[in-house]
């Protein structure tokens, strides 16, 4: 197949994902597998370039029918939010620079153990073989098997060891010198005092993968990171502004609290006419809690009505957006301080009038820096305020034990 000619017909360059897939995969055209569901080709815009994407048909792995079944499959290496905040706190404590790397076409680096069949996308068909079926050993975004960039062998090559309780955090320890590598699918952050080793590590990774050295981290997973002498400031201002724009709340009047204390979310009201919009907004608000613990409780409350939201619930969501509009640049300032762990937890008793379950809240500080927090309804009904506090304490202890 003529990759360049085909890419021109798709109005993309020959270096985008589709061309890379052809270069990175072993392609042959066997007999087609038994009939299965075929999914249409999709595109994604990134930096103004549309990259063709294709869903793939595999006979080795069936499509999951539920979230429970989907979690049985291997997944991409991602890091927990508290881990990212701990790394930022370490960088602020020791005045380390945050070096950011990006792996290009991360899903092309994995070797599949099973046979994969893929319907040939438009513009890439082999006219000599109209079977419309491709068998490949490596292919982009294989259904249910996105684990392509496997760095578990880094300890054998680069002296990096992965943590058992945090498989996306790699550590190198030489004497009193520690180097941390944080992995989130294809985004990497490296911090540590040994800048020579970090330079060598980047060069070694470049030999294995196509990577982009982005220098000091400024944007990571939608977080705006600003380093200064006083510490590291992190906020999600750009993400919030985009959310306000898509929700039509850019000119809304701001308010000083994220939720009204007099609002009863269980009041009978007409259903909201666009439940999908409600779910999208609440999902975006959940991601904003990455750097905004002040909205954790309010977002937890509106998240309990995703199945059938009413106009009152949507009004509560708009109240949170109005509060955020007045504080778009508010975030977290990581600064130097002690390294003691402090945790504060609290709960209400039978605060939910519908099922009389309680809500547990906690926040953990590493020195002066908040690194983990949660607001969540308890799974059981407590018979006394003491029982509520013990349940809250147990939840907090589990999180604290994981951090330690």
Description:
- By secondary structure, the protein is of the alpha+beta class.
- Helix content is 29%, strand content 23%.
- β7 (161-163) and β8 form a beta hairpin.
- The protein is globular, with a radius of gyration of 24 Å.
Looking at this protein, list some descriptive labels.
404 residues; alpha+beta; Double Stranded RNA Binding Domain; 4 domains; six-stranded antiparallel β-sheet; four-stranded antiparallel β-sheet; 18 strands; 29% helix; globular; disordered N terminus
CATH topology of the largest domain: Double Stranded RNA Binding Domain
Strand runs, count: 18
Strand order of the largest sheet: 7-8-9-10-4-11
Whole-number radius of gyration? 24 Å
- Shape annotation: globular
The percent range for helix content is 25-40%
Strand percent estimate: 15-25%
What is the name of the CATH class of the largest domain? Alpha Beta
Determine the N-to-C terminus distance: 54 Å
Class inferred from helices and paired strands: alpha+beta
Count of helix runs: 11
Largest sheet: 6 strands, antiparallel
Q: What does the secondary structure layout of this molecule look like, with pairings?
A:
Layout: H1 3-9, H2 17-24, E1 27-28, E2 42-46, E3 49-53, H3 67-70, H4 81-94, E4 99-103, E5 116-118, E6 134-136, H5 154-157, E7 161-163, E8 166-174, E9 177-184, E10 187-191, H6 195-208, E11 211-216, E12 219-220, E13 223-228, E14 231-235, H7 237-246, H8 275-288, H9 296-302, H10 311-326, E15 332-334, E16 341-347, E17 359-366, E18 369-377, H11 385-403
Antiparallel strand pairs: 1-6, 2-3, 4-10, 4-11, 5-6, 7-8, 8-9, 9-10, 12-13, 13-14, 14-15, 16-17, 17-18
